[in-house]
């Protein structure tokens, strides 16, 4: 069975067709992933007569699922061409996102993460970390009451404390900062001072993160191009539709 980090999705999957599966241009192929609680249906892009490409879905749990290659032709019933198993595995990015999500409001844990700042990883490593952790956050099942500032809503903006936004800005994580801004408490975190008197906005300015500072201060700031070109998701009730712009493929996810 093939495998994929289940939390992120957006990995390229290549499907090799057998000689008998190679058909005319009027046939459309889909992959259907059936898990224990959700089902994903992805369109495919034909690379050549014998190969297809699509994008792996971001799954909701670590498990082995059934994946079916289906062929559709106008005026004909949908055919299941082949079936295989596909394993979604947990990875470090998901562990990191889960850790950070549970640390919102935990001052001891948030202060502990500041040791990463001293190591100052290379820009390429930061960009890789940013993309992977932000994608993992997108697939976390955050509780309805989850807040960037933690569960204690009695704290005011005047109480100095470390926040998840400080963490993301300190490391220059542009995509994670964008994600946190869209969550409850995200905008409120921008005006909170930590024990050194720094806000996320002043940290971005102090460190020369121009794009990050612009993201935090401009009301009409758009989603970072480096991420928005990857995929766009629209949610509607129990369904979501994702368009991966790079490959121009679509994915429908629904509760099974």
Radius of gyration: 21 Å
Q: How far is the N terminus from the C terminus?
A: 22 Å
Query: Oligomeric state of the chains?
Result: single chain
Uncertain ranges: 3-7
- How many DSSP-defined strands? 11
Instruction: Compute the number of structural domains.
Output: 2
Query: Given the structure, what is the number of helices?
Result: 9
Largest β-sheet summary: 8 strands, mixed
- Bulk shape: elongated
Structural class: alpha+beta
Order of helices and strands: EEEEEEEEHHHHHHHHHEEE
| Helical percentage | 25-40%
Strand order of the largest sheet: 1-8-7-3-4-11-10-9
Beta percentage is: 25-35%
Report mean pLDDT, rounded to a whole number.
83
How would you explain this protein's 3D organization?
By secondary structure, the chain is an alpha+beta fold. The chain folds into 2 domains: 3-90 and 229-255, Immunoglobulins (Immunoglobulin-like); 92-223, no CATH class. 29% of the residues lie in helices and 28% in strands. It has an 8-stranded mixed sheet, with no helix packed on it. A 3-stranded antiparallel sheet has the order 2-6-5, with no helix packed on it. Strand 9 (231-236) and strand 10 (239-244) form a beta hairpin. Helix 5 packs parallel to helix 7 and helix 6 packs parallel to helix 8 (210-217). The protein is elongated and about 65 Å long. The relative contact order is 0.15. Mean pLDDT is 83; it is low at 3-7. This is AKP13 protein. One of its GO terms (biological process) is regulation of Rho protein signal transduction.
């Amino acid at each position: 069975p093939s495998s994929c980090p289940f939390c992120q999705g957006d990995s390229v999957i290549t499907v090799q067709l057998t000689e008998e599966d190679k058909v005319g241009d009027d046939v459309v192929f889909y992959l259907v992933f059936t898990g224990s609680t959700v089902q994903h249906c992805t369109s495919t892009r034909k690379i050549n007569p014998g190969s297809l490409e699509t994008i792996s879905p971001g799954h909701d749990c670590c498990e082995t699922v059934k994946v079916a290659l289906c062929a559709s032709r106008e005026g004909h019933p949908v055919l299941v061409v082949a079936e295989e198993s596909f394993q979604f595995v947990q990875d470090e990015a998901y562990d990191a996102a889960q850790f950070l999500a549970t640390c919102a409001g935990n001052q001891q844990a948030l202060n502990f993460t500041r040791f990463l700042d001293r190591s100052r990883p290379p820009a390429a490593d930061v960009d890789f970390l940013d993309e992977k952790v932000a994608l993992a956050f997108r697939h976390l099942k955050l509780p309805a009451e989850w807040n960037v500032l933690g569960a204690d809503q009695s704290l005011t903006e005047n109480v100095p404390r470390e926040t998840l936004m400080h963490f993301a800005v300190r490391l220059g994580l542009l995509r994670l900062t964008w994600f946190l801004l869209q969550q409850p408490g995200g905008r409120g975190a921008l005006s909170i001072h930590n024990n050194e008197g720094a806000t996320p906005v002043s940290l971005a300015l102090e460190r020369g993160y121009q794009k990050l500072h612009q993201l935090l201060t401009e009301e009409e700031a758009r989603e970072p191009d480096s991420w928005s070109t990857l995929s766009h998701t629209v949610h509607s009730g129990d369904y979501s539709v994702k368009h991966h712009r790079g490959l121009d493929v679509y994915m429908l996810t629904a509760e099974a």
